[in-house]
Design brief:
This protein folds into two domains: about 180 residues, Alanine racemase (TIM Barrel); about 130 residues, Lyase, Ornithine Decarboxylase, Chain A, domain 1, CATH 2.40.37. About 30% of the residues lie in helices and about 20% in strands. The longest helix is centred in the middle third of the chain and has 19 residues. It is built from twelve helices and 19 strands. α2 runs parallel beside α9 and α8 runs parallel beside α9. The chain has about 425 residues and is α/β, with parallel strands linked by helices. The structure holds pyridoxal-5'-phosphate. Pyridoxal-5'-phosphate (PLP) binds next to α10.
Length: about 425
């Protein structure tokens, strides 16, 4: 399978020589294309928020904000990144199973200051109690301080068509509340208090290979919302999460397929009972294909019986997905034996098998098997589809600083997006 890169090879080589390797290069045009495809699938009045967990490089968040995406964050750190990128609280939602007391306090403080988040999606009855206590202490829901809007996260108990490590919507997962728990929470939360329960939040999993589990989950979310809204005013929102996959055309369902399923389900509901707000919050789909990890060859080894092993200067510290759950990332050579490969040669350059390994002291630090031309120390390779869950999951293991991140403008200009981290990482 040919590796498709979102940027010309000469620009990737230019990034390597200007910023050093490894370097992350994000093609702004590819971000815009993905944002446009998402908007076409989920047009207004759908709310479209970008999940910063997929890639929190400030320049990337800023570009997606400028392309009209709102922000979906899981911590004060991501919230700060969204704000730095120019996204106001009114366009930002907070969710996540790991919210700290500090995160909840910050959400309440912002509301008390008259600048609330769009909503906070709550994971459990305990978290709701903690948030309600803080909100009551801050006087939310009294006088001129409106209550804080919350969604309740449903565990939709479906069978997501994805890698086990990416499936979060099954009954045994730690995420969200069962229908029974969620309904009990609504019943136990008085109206007119410091929190306004506005609806249901769900997320099925990431890199979904089919639409079925997602459709089942949305159906459950809609049914539960209808049931709860019948007895209580103000429940008017469904957030269907993210999960839209990336892959070769035809190999995975595009966002439009998911949107089509949602449209069919919504079409069966009488207009008067439709949720007034619908939201989606993808991460991967918006950023995965846009970024390339450019790495340099450190060693080439011929191992009798095992073949060629190419060790490059990027690995699990920059892109852990292959090591964490066996994700495949295409790799193309940008140079061969010191000579630049032109775009035609890139396509036809896959002539010898090679296992591509990373540089850190772990046997699992490998990108697996690829077809690559002759390589020697100093040659450059491009690791594709590195934009999602790469930079945001990076570590400084082995004393390796965070790599520089660069934006590639449509006119070919390279713009620094984040500098290399300091050598002393901690
Ligand atoms: C609640 C929630 N929403 C959205 C996302 C984004 O998922 P994806 O990057 O697959 O679109 C995630 C990913 O873990 C999530 O947990």
């Amino acid at each position: 399978m040919q590796t498709v890169l979102p940027a010309p090879a000469d620009r990737l080589r230019a990034a390597a020589s200007r910023f050093g390797t490894p370097v992350g290069v994000t093609a702004v045009q590819a971000l815009a294309d993905a944002a446009a495809e998402l908007r076409a699938a989920f047009p207004d009045p759908w709310l479209r928020a970008y999940s910063l967990k997929a890639n929190d490089v400030p320049a990337v968040v800023e570009r997606l904000g400028a392309l009209g995406l709102d922000a979906n964050v899981v911590s004060r750190g991501e919230w700060a990144a969204a704000r730095r990128a120019g996204l106001p609280n009114a366009r930002t939602t907070l969710e996540g199973i790991g919210k700290t007391a500090g995160d909840l306090r910050a959400a309440v403080r912002a509301a008390a200051d008259g600048d609330p988040l769009r909503w906070v999606a709550v994971e459990s009855p305990e978290e709701l109690d903690a948030l309600a206590l803080l909100a009551a202490r801050a006087g939310l829901g009294h006088g001129d301080r409106p209550p804080l809007d919350v969604l309740l996260r449903l565990n939709p108990d479906v069978s997501p068509e994805t890698h086990a490590g990416l499936a979060v919507g099954h009954g045994a997962s730690k995420f969200g509340m069962t229908e029974t728990e969620l309904s009990a929470v609504v019943a136990a939360t008085p109206e007119g208090g410091p929190l306004a329960i506005r609806g249901v939040h769900l997320h099925v999993g990431s890199q979904l290979g089919a639409v079925d589990a997602w459709r089942d989950a949305v159906r459950r979310g809609l049914a539960l919302l209808a049931l709860l809204a019948a007895g209580r005013a103000g429940l008017d929102t469904l957030d269907v999460g993210g999960g839209y996959p990336v892959g070769d055309p035809g190999s995975v369902p595009p966002p439009a397929r998911f949107a089509g399923e949602a449209a069919r389900l919504l079409g069966a509901i009488p207009t008067s009972r439709l949720p007034r707000r619908l939201a989606t919050e993808p991460g991967r789909f918006l950023v995965a294909h846009a970024s390339v990890l450019v790495a340099r060859v450190l060693h080439v080894r011929e191992r009798p019986g095992w073949g060629r092993i190419v060790v490059v200067d990027a690995g699990m510290t920059e892109l852990i997905r292959p090591m964490l759950y066996g994700a495949h990332h295409g790799i193309a050579a940008l140079t061969s034996l010191g000579r630049a490969l032109d775009p035609g040669e890139l396509a036809s350059s896959g002539i010898e098998p090679a296992r591509v390994d990373g540089p850190v002291c772990e046997g699992t630090d490998t990108f697996g098997d690829h077809a690559l031309p002759p390589l020697r120390r100093g040659d450059l390779v491009a690791i594709a589809d590195a934009g999602a869950y790469g930079a945001s999951m990076a570590s400084t293991y082995n004393g390796r600083p965070a790599i520089p991140q660069v934006l590639l403008e449509p006119d070919g200009t390279l713009v620094p997006g984040r500098p290399r981290g300091r050598l002393i990482g901690r």
